[in-house]
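= Tokenised fold =
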Amino acid sequence: MDINNLYSKRKKLADRGNQSEVYQYTNLPLEFRRQVVHIWSTAIGSYSGKPYYEGYEPLVGRLWRSIHDSLARELGLFNLGNEFQHPFEQCKFFLLDPNTSVEHQLDLIEFTFRFIDTVIPELLQDPQHSRHLETSQLPEKAISELNHRFREHAIGYQYNNGQIIRVDSGFIHAEVVVPALSLLSSEHFKGAEEEFRSAHAHYRKEEYKDAILDAHNAFESTMKTICGECKWPYSKGTASELIKVVLDNELIPKYLQNHLSSLQSVLAGASTVRNNTSAHGQGTPPKDVPEYLAAYVLHLTASNIVLLVEAYKDKKGNLT
């Protein structure tokens, strides 16, 4: 579906001083949630409530029943709305209900768009099912529109590869976080990818200590994978040891080592933050991890992962 740059949207942007990267995280505006329902209708289909013939429920009805029942079960609910409503209407009610928390609204959006991302493409490729789909928007277009709507409303989230991820800077997200996730999506780096995604999930829930722990684990796992693939031995597998191994084996070119004398301390930055906040006993009083520190670790970790994996790919290409 085409996205129109209406006057009212241009005015809102002007009123914000054209600061399109000033995000908020505590509210999903009603206008945005209605736009999500529109995307559902074009990418999954909306249910009219009229079966094609007695005793038969159309495919779109069965799809929404599957979405509703699975999410209600995960949330520990019997129904997302009135039990006498169709599942599509219940999902719609749950999203638009002002009493639904932002966290659960995001749960529903993530769940439905993961469905759009994974299930709908399979149905589109199956001739038996594709002719019964009531869709007018391809999955990739639906996901692109959702991410546009997030940015349009200055909401600091994006959908990426099955997960809603919190975004603090559009530039950092596009130039660092997304490339890191893309590089880790290969089979060899699956463990590091899961840890990095888990770090973002904790960050979105304001669990900043756990976010730092998982970011650090992703950083270590990335180096362990590279060392394993390159057959570079290590013993304890700590971040400091792994950094020394990849530098000793010239994963980073010598000219970078010479000109960036602080490279090792930069690579160790994430683990240094982690060691002083999350990894050890807190003592008295407990140590609080501020949001900005967790964001710094996530961004630094993403930058390091991109650097390491790109260098590994280049080295591997030169060896083959």
User: Anything to note?
Assistant: The chain is about 65% helix and 0% strand. Residues 16-21 have pLDDT under 50 and may be disordered.
